[in-house]
Amino acid sequence: MTAFxxxxxxxxxxxxxxxxxxxxxxxxxxxxxxxxQVLANSPxxxxxxxxxVRGGTLRGELEEGRASFDLAGEKDTLPVxxxxxxxxxxxxxxxxxxxxxxxxxxxxxxAREMALVTNYGFVMGAYIxxxxxxxxxxxxMGRKVCLLYDExxxxxxxxxxxxxxxxxx
Length: 169
Description:
Layout (H helix, E strand, L loop, with lengths): L1 H29 L4 H7 L5 E7 L12 E7 L4 E7 L11 E9 L4 E8 L4 H35 L15
Parallel strand pairs: 3-5
Antiparallel strand pairs: 1-2, 1-4, 2-3, 4-5
């Protein structure tokens, strides 16, 4: 029975390590800033900014991949200059994630790429809803199999055959 709990302990430790590594990847590659955070911190490295394209501010040549607009957060707006691939999903009043750099001298965000907003909470919730019952099922079934094996071993029905009759013809 100790081996059973040892296996499940290793599985739990492995799952914990996987969660920590996933969270670190999210923080390094997928975490986004709000327009308020960009204006307050003035980051110098390339960042991802999430916000709503403010109505009435979209102008430029979208077919050629150039546009300017204001990206609204909860309190502040961020002026954006987009130059990149022609955007398929750039419209007013649409929530977007922009990838680029903040230019402090001009106080504009120079975006080079646009991404759709993914609802990671929904995706993670769907995985949890599916995996937790599966893990519990496997745990309890494994435990029942171990208990059944021990019970069969201890019962009198499980005896090795000592007298083997072999026909010597």
